[in-house]
Amino acid sequence: MPRKTRILCALFLAFVLAPALLPETAAQVTMPRLNFQERKLDNGLRILSAADHSSPTVAIQVWYHVGSKDDPTGRSGFAHLFEHIMFKSTRNMPSEMIDRLTEDVGGFNNAFTADDVTVYFEVVPSNYLETLLWAEADRLSGLNIDDQNFKSERDVVKEEFRQRILAPPYGRLFYLIEQKSFTRHPYQRPGIGSIEDLDAASLEDVREFHATFYRPDNVTLVVVGDFGQKQLDAWVDKYFGPISKPTRPLPRVTVKEPSRSAEKRFVEYGQNVPLPAVAMTYLTPAKSDPDADALKVAEAILSSGDSSRLYNSLVYEQQIAQEAFGQSDLREDLGLFILGAILASDKKPEEAERALLAEIKKMQDAPVTAAELEKAKNQIITNQVRERETSNGKALALGEAAVLLGDPNRVNTDLARLQAVTAADVQRVMKKYFMDANRLVLHYLPESARTEKPPAEKTGTHQIQSGQHITTGGRAQ
Amino acid sequence: MRSLNSISVLLLMFLGSMTVAAQTAQPKATPPPPAPPRSVEFPKPVESTLANGLRVIVVERPNSPLVAAQIVIRNGGEVDPDGLSGLADLTAGLLTKGTEKRSAPDIAEAIEALGGSLDSGAGWDSSRASVNVLSSKVAPAMEILADIVRRPTFHEEELERLRQQYRDNITLEMGNPGSIARYVAARVVFGDAPYGHPLSGTSESIAKITRGDIVKLHAAYYRPDNAILVFGGDIKAKDAFSLAERFFGDWKKPATPLPAAASGSAKAETTKEARVVVVDKPDAGQAAVVVARTGINRRHPDYYSGIVANSVLSGYSGRLNQEIRIKRGLSYGAGSTLETRRDIGPFAASAQTKNESGAEVAALLIGEVGRLATAPLPDAELVPRKAVLMGGFSRNLETVTGIVAQVAALALHDLSLDEINRYIASVQAVTEDDVRKFASSRLGAGGTNIIIVGNAKAFLPELSKHYKEIEVIPLGELDLNSGQLRRAPTSATQ
Questions:
Q1: CB within 8 Å: A130 and B32
Q2: What is the residue-wise DSSP string for A150-190?
Q3: Do A36 and A48 touch, CB atoms closer than 8 A?
Q4: Gap from B337 CA to chain A (nearest CA, Å)
Q5: Nearest CB to A312: which of B64, B105, B399?
Q6: Complex ipTM > 0.90
Q7: Are A123 and A65 in contact (CB under 8 A)?
Q8: Is B287:B354 a contact under the CB 8 Å cutoff?
Q9: Are B221 and B292 in contact (CB under 8 A)?
Q10: Hey, are the CB atoms on A151 and B37 less than 8 Å from each other?
């Protein structure tokens, strides 16, 4: 049953990529080294591979360095809609053929779209590796979608919007956090999009997006599992080698989010809000910043488990919240540290806000204890060992290190960086980023709490245009 | 103790042949064919029973430096007394909230300092507490696991705290059309039988539970001769057995006999007029549609026919998704579950859709379940759907938590642990006839209930064209405490 108080957290964390980490150092706990090979084709495609023959399966992942931040103007949600379209007909495959090649032979496939990347992955019996390399090369080289398939898949994405944002309590809260937290950077736009923008998308947009971003020099192919290296190299050369690299440059988001100069506050109301919620965000640096490790340790101390500071204070002792959360959500261009609470019955948002601020102040005023520091590192490392139990998990770690951290070796070197974090480092980043002027506060309340009449605009699904950045997966279940 | 040498059982996995059916577009090239399949061997569980009756099972799988261990009590929510639904779950939830030597924060601190996780909760037919840690930390983690299972104190203060969390969680669940539909479906299928009540209770039952009820349930069921301890992962069997002896060896078996078994679904078998129930939630962002009925128990001889039948319907390329998602774009995902328990469990097919499509999706779900008994099931469809099951089973065994869960389920239902190595062959053996026979005898559309939770005015007119008797219950009048589902008007307080 402890699961039930974590619903929101689980929902939220489930969409966050596994952070990459490490080999063995002098620390108390260690993790096995992940040995891999790296190659690059003449057309710019990068391949990372790690053989592991413990099970006769292989995980194949194709990381495209394009995400929701690259949605065309007026087309929020497009990168994610496009991800769905990649399962429709391609140069040589009819719609859903990827399912025939994976699900039908005992494997599975899926995909997700995040702010900075779109990742397609499958796990199949290893004797199907060549088949899947052919299929992935085929959908990289060209799509062949018709209007009917395009429209029915767009309807599926609209149902995904309703299922993630409209139906569950707090679905819209995370949507709002994203939208309010950024003022200029496209991270402010909803990864899932809006009904209007989805309706505006056309087949022409699909062709243009594929031509712009789906090119070999924007791809990292990751293969982990039961294969022979020479054979893999030969198949990759055969199927991916002939795909040409366009001459036009790859567009990249260069917008800079301005730093915040004063606290911002918002009150939002929702139809389906069983208990009020409070959230606050602070702008933090990019994922590759040296402060990322100390922020990760701060995150664990604040919010990892029932012995964390937020749980102890807000949920256990004061019983202000039925759930408290804290997350260092680092992205390629800049990050957010998100803290918040779903209130316990009969508690006021102001009480939760005060309690959250008090916990931040404690982290700023005094160093964390040696025991807390060690616990946080043990938790982070154990989680990463768990994430790497499967070939698919290992491939995720490799892809993230290569594409989002810029160096695949970080899968093995990040452990040392984590172990090097001191209590003073944690205190320093708490003081550096958790300033009053860098804070945004959002109170999320039920409609019944409105003191004045709601605005005259009609309510309903079509009114919701605000966004959320959460990674959205291609397939339910 | 049985042999520690694992006997390799070689099996051919993934025999599914590629079925690239002719579809709309004309492929210009065909994919390279698969290489010959590789064989696979699953680890072999070994076991031993301690003098006090505790059954201990170990599955060695040293691929990753992790160990998962779970203690399974052979009773759960099905033993909740009338009016006290949620008692078994609350009892299991309180295990981690205080022992004779540790407070709740002490327990959290102890396990988390190891980097490990500790969870407890009740399901149907079982209650569980489990740890997952690096293998270098397994001994201290087992000490904590034994402490919480054997010596919980159930402090009043902790009970109140958890009671409030359960209440808040119920409030949260009642805001979500999908969860409401699942709760209502259980009541519709099982009526007032134990499997009908919400496992985590209702706001009324949670308010009534006392510390005395909890202590009594723990004393009656948490005993070594009613428990199974399963280890999986990077640990030698002899080391696991010795940890079991060290931390559970002096757990005393009470002199009193175990309480008589209760049947989770007994009363449900006799009541059966299919119902159409609509719960009206005008602010719902989507409608949740469930069609549900009784299925089979875990030990039923048609178990494998049943899970293959379910796989034909469910999964990304199952018939439900083909019809509802892929052809019509009506949902982000449709699926079905055949939940097998000690007694007859539920079968349910479900999808969420925009409110306006609620009736259409209900008709599609009912139609596909019915078609399973009549429509042809060619090998081109059957073979891939079996491959889905076999692949999923094999992947489950790739993590230590997955291995422990699979083995614990076999042990709980007194099935041979060798079934792990017979699963693939058993699925392979299911034929088209088996599936059709299962569908007509166990899933016949006659007994299938329909539950829709959403903004009723958007789908009720269409639904009324097909069904004469529809029970429409405003959310405020919904009562999950009985199979009636409706509060008496006078006591409609919410």
A1: yes
A2: HHHHHHHHHHHHIIIIISSTTHHHHHHHHHHH-SSSGGGS-
A3: yes
A4: 12
A5: B105
A6: no
A7: no
A8: yes
A9: no
A10: no
